[in-house]
Write a structure and sequence with these properties.
The complex is a heterodimer of chains A (about 300) and B (about 325). Chain A is mainly alpha-helical and about 300 residues long. Chain A has 2 domains: about 5-45, no CATH class; about 70-295, MetI-like fold, CATH 1.10.3720.10. Chain A contains 15 helices and 2 strands. In chain A, strands 1-2 form a two-stranded antiparallel sheet. In chain A, a hairpin with a 4-residue loop joins β1 and β2 (about 55-60). In chain A, α2 crosses α15 and α14 (about 255-265) packs antiparallel against α15 (about 270-295). Chain A is globular, with a radius of gyration of 26 Å. The relative contact order of chain A is 0.12. Chain B has one domain (about 70-310): MetI-like (MetI-like fold). Chain B is built from 14 helices and no strands. Chain B has helices at about 5-40, 45-50, 60-70, 75-105, 110-120, 125-135, 155-165, 170-180, 185-195, 200-210, 210-230, 230-235, 245-260, 275-310. Chain B starts with a helix and ends with a helix. The chains are: A mainly alpha (about 300), B mainly alpha (about 325). Chains A and B meet through α1, α4, α5, α6 and α7 of A and α1, α4, α5, α6 and α7 of B.
């Protein structure tokens, strides 16, 4: 019996705990210092006005004034806020649908597949940051959009007339028209989502399809009974990604408005209150989406 | 018509349809780049001329020359390249570590930590930008340092955030690395432990070499997003010439330089939106081109390794 030897051993579960803490330590420290702390400050800031001097900064308590100002006094906030949410609601299903469709096609074998794949992911590389920001006000870009709208049968008033003559309900016509008009934007916003769906398609075991073939399932049945259920977790992932991505994009009108307000508008406090309201709205949407989708998601075990 | 023939016809029709669709989509994707190139090559007269749409009548490299000079291109490029490479390397090291910790160790709170990592992705950086700025402007480690230090204008904010896996979109990288490590066989580590390797030796010598595809994806995403980033770089490095700032200021600088050069000549109508557009388009191309070249070389790994990482889970 040598009880003191016991201390030199580390059991497996102890090692698991120590290792886990050690490896995740950088993130925990970083999270507290560079995320949680500024986040709490942002909440406090939204109830204050910030006065910045070269030496230090001061907070002046304003209570709910900033929120009231943003919602009721600010001339544009409420309008832009609803517009951005409506735009997100229109584009979300389109982006999901398109990226699903594109991934299915890119998963097939055809000549030039490598080239096409490369082109599809090009927007991931190019579409962000300063380029997006400059594009909004770029004269030649605006001209291009104008030309495209006026010269094509499939856009603008001509299209509207076409659908109206088909006696579809008004709301539907409007949705279809706006959907077609935002198609270029949708295609360009789908890069990462296509990648995620593609990765999912590749991870479905071949044997399942082989078994289905043997049992005599048609490709249509195979799609709805195998491919689609297997990809439902990724539909959830992509929904979240799309919402977050559009939320933080540099060409998001509300993001621009918040920035403008901060730099030369009603000040830091109001812009923080705006950002908080926007954040709350998006969080609410994410929770609803999660609650609605996660019960329908199929997890392959 | 025999069944075989009908099948073949169906197949041909389908692949034709697919080709048309793909060409259409690729056209939509490429259109802005082609349009940008054609605009950047135009002289100002071409942009005024309504009959000139795609092919410039008087092609010129003047826009590129002007913007190259006034962006201080070579220097800005060097700095942006350094910043991107440096933050990506730190992101990679930190996120691989955290991802591994979350993938392979069972310890109380691991679920919460993973949830927090995802939470950092959902909170937009714009929301915490101002407090973040104040945090680094008067940096005192939550009150631990007596005299606050001003870290704005240095590389420290980037180093600190990336090194602790809380930089731009780090939550996503943690997620990717976690999924990747989860997919690797456990037997590898068990063998290493039995042979007497410690935790970190196992991680560095056994697990990392097997995770190269996942590391590559993380590095590429991180590099590209840092390169294109506008928000962080303008907040933490105000007034310094990285590519985004250089690009934003270029058109104004060019305009001013021209104004000064021919103060007597009538310049009205010359330095308008049209002119800015030419300069901006040339500038945007200059910002994008290095990434395009990088992508051309690495795209094979990019697409393939994402497929293999199974971001899926």
């Amino acid at each position: 019996m040598r009880p003191q030897r016991k201390h030199t051993y580390v059991t497996f579960s102890q090692m698991q705990k120590i290792g886990g803490f050690l490896f995740t330590l950088p993130f925990v420290v970083g999270f507290i210092l560079f995320f949680a702390y500024p986040f709490i400050q942002a909440i406090i800031l939204s109830f204050n006005e910030l006065v910045l001097t070269s030496e230090t900064f001061e907070l002046q308590w304003r209570g709910l004034y900033n929120y009231g100002y943003a919602l009721q006094v600010h001339p544009e906030f409420s309008r832009v806020f609803t517009e951005v949410l409506v735009k997100l609601a229109t584009e979300l299903p389109l982006i999901l649908g398109f990226s699903f469709f594109a991934a299915t096609i890119l998963n097939q074998n055809f000549r030039g597949r490598a080239l096409v794949r490369m082109l599809f992911f090009l927007p991931v590389i190019l579409g962000s940051g300063v380029v997006m920001k400059l594009e909004i006000n770029d004269y030649s870009q605006i001209m291009l959009d104008a030309v495209r709208q006026s010269s094509s049968v499939f856009q603008g008033p001509a299209l509207q007339a076409m659908f109206e003559s088909a006696r579809l309900p008004d709301g539907m016509v409007e949705y279809i028209v706006s959907a077609i008009e935002s198609l270029p934007a949708v295609i360009r916003a789908s890069g990462v989502q296509i990648l995620i769906f593609l990765a999912g398609l590749q991870s479905i075991p071949r044997e399942i399809y082989e078994a289905a073939d043997v049992e005599g399932a048609t490709p249509w049945e195979q799609f709805w009974l195998i491919t689609f259920p297997m990809l439902t977790p990724l539909i959830l992932t992509n929904t979240v990604y799309t919402i977050v991505d559009s939320f933080t994009a540099m060409n998001n009108e509300l993001v621009i408005l918040i920035r403008e307000t901060m730099l030369r508008g009603a000040g830091y406090g109001v812009s923080m209150a705006m950002a908080m309201l926007y954040f709350a709205a998006i969080t609410l949407i994410l929770i609803i989406v999660f609650a609605a989708l996660s019960r329908r998601v199929f997890y392959h075990v | 018509m025999s069944i075989a023939m009908r099948e073949r016809l169906k197949k041909t029709f389908y692949s034709l349809l697919r080709t048309v669709l793909l060409i259409g989509i690729c056209y939509v994707i490429l259109l802005p780049i082609i349009h940008r190139l054609s605009t950047a090559l135009m002289s100002i007269e071409d942009l005024y001329d309504q009959s000139v749409r795609w092919i410039p009548r008087n092609p010129t490299l003047r826009n590129f020359r002007l913007v190259w000079e006034h962006m201080d291109y070579v220097r800005s490029l060097g700095r942006t390249f350094f910043l991107s490479a440096f933050t990506s390397a730190l992101n990679l090291a930190a996120c691989a570590m955290v991802g591994y910790g979350l993938a392979r160790f069972r310890f109380p709170g691991s679920g919460i930590i993973f949830g927090l990592a995802i939470f950092t992705l959902v909170v937009p950086p714009q929301l915490i930008m101002v407090p973040m700025y104040l945090n680094f402007r008067f940096f005192n480690l939550l009150g631990l340092l007596r005299e606050p230090i001003n870290l704005i204008g240095t590389y420290w904010p980037f180093a600190l955030m990336s090194g602790t896996a809380t930089g731009f979109r780090c939550g996503l990288y943690i997620f990717i690395m976690r999924q990747f490590f989860r997919g690797m066989p456990k037997a590898l580590e068990e063998a290493a432990y039995i042979d007497g390797a410690g935790l970190f030796t196992t991680f560095i010598r056994v697990m990392l070499p097997g995770a190269v595809p996942g590391l590559l994806v993380t590095f590429l995403f991180s590099f590209v997003w840092q390169w294109n980033d506008y928000l962080y770089v303008t907040q933490f490095m105000p007034g310094q010439s990285f590519l985004p700032q250089a690009l934003e200021g270029a058109a104004n600088k060019v305009a001013r330089a021209i104004d000064e050069a021919d103060a007597l000549a009538s310049t009205s109508g010359f330095l308008d939106d049209h002119f800015y557009s030419l300069i901006n388009n040339a500038g945007m191309l200059l910002v994008i081109v290095p990434l395009l070249i990088l992508y051309l070389f690495l795209q094979r790994y990019f697409v393939e390794s994402i497929e293999r990482t199974g971001i899926v889970g």
